[in-house]
Amino acid sequence: MHILLLEDDPPTAEALRAGFTRSGFEVTTAASAGDALAAVARTRFGAVILDVMVPGGSGYDVLADLRARGDDVPVLILTARDRVPERVDGLERGADDYLVKPFAFAELMARLRALLRRPARRVEPFRLDGLDIDLLHRRVLAHGRHVDLTRVEFDILLALAEARGDAVTRRDLLATVWGYRFEPGTNVVDVHVARLRRKLESAGAASAIRTVRGIGYALDA
C-alpha cells in the first residue's frame, strides 16, 4: 500500500515515515502543499495523510484537488488545530478522519488501518421508495436523478439501507463504515450524515434519513 504523507516538520515526517515503513507501507513524503499536489497528480495513492498548516498553501488545498478530480482516496487530517469547529470544517471539506497533534503513533496506525478496511458487501442493488442504490458500480439515484456521493457517504447510505428501516447506532456506523473498534472522539458520523442528507434532499429525497433520538439514524426512503 502506497501512502502520501504531507508534513513540513522534518523530524516528525521522518519518524512517521519510518513507522509506516516498518508497518509495511510504501511512503511518499511531501513538505509543502505544492509538493503534495504534484505527488497526487502523478501517483494513485491508497491513502493520504495531510497536515493542514504547511508552506505554499494548506493540506486542505490538496484535499480539495483530490475531491475535485473525483478521487475518493481515504484522507486523514493531522493538525494541531483542536477546536471542534475546525475538526468539523475538515470533515465538511471531504476528509474521512481527523487526528489532533500530539498523538500516539499506535492510534494513527489504528485509524489508518480502519480507513483502509472495507467489509465485504452484497452486490444486488437496493431499490427503495425513491432510491436506487447500485452496489456494483457504487451509484445512487434519487427519483431518477444521480446523487454524487463520496465513498464514506455511499457506505453510510448502504449501511442504513441494509438495516431496512431499523435504527443504526452511531457506534455501529463507526464500525461498519470506518472499521473503528474504538470511539474516535469526534462527531465524524453526524457530519457525514448531514452532508449525505443535504445531497439526498437536493435530489428530492427530503425525508430519506431519519434521526432516531438517542440512538442514531434510520433510512425511511
Count of domains: 2
Query: How many helix segments?
Result: 8
Query: Based on the structure given, which CATH architecture of the largest domain is correct?
Result: 3-Layer(aba) Sandwich
The top-level CATH class of the largest domain is: Alpha Beta
Explain the overall architecture.
This protein is an alpha/beta fold. The chain has two domains: 2-116, Response regulator (Rossmann fold); 126-219, Winged helix-like DNA-binding domain superfamily/Winged helix DNA-binding domain (Arc Repressor Mutant, subunit A, Orthogonal Bundle). 41% of the residues lie in helices and 23% in strands. It is built from eight helices and 14 strands. It has a five-stranded parallel β-sheet, sandwiched between helices. A four-stranded antiparallel β-sheet has the order 8-9-10-11, with helices on one face. Strands 12-14-13 form a three-stranded antiparallel β-sheet. Strand 10 (139-142) and strand 11 form a beta hairpin. Helix 2 (33-42) packs parallel to helix 3 (59-68), helix 6 packs across helix 7 and helix 6 crosses helix 8. The longest helix is centred in the last third of the chain and has 15 residues, at 188-202. It starts with a strand and ends with a strand.
Which tags fit this structure?
221 residues, alpha/beta, 2 domains, 4-stranded antiparallel sheet, 8 helices, 14 strands
Structure in a nutshell:
Helix content is 41%, strand content 23%.
How is the secondary structure organized here?
Elements: E1 2-6, H1 10-22, E2 26-30, H2 33-42, E3 47-51, E4 53-54, E5 57-58, H3 59-68, E6 75-79, H4 84-92, E7 97-100, H5 105-116, E8 126-128, E9 131-134, E10 139-142, E11 145-146, H6 151-162, E12 168-169, H7 170-178, H8 188-202, E13 209-212, E14 216-219
Parallel strand pairs: 1-2, 1-3, 3-6, 6-7
Antiparallel strand pairs: 4-5, 8-9, 9-10, 10-11, 12-14, 13-14
Helix pairs in contact: 2-3, 6-7, 6-8
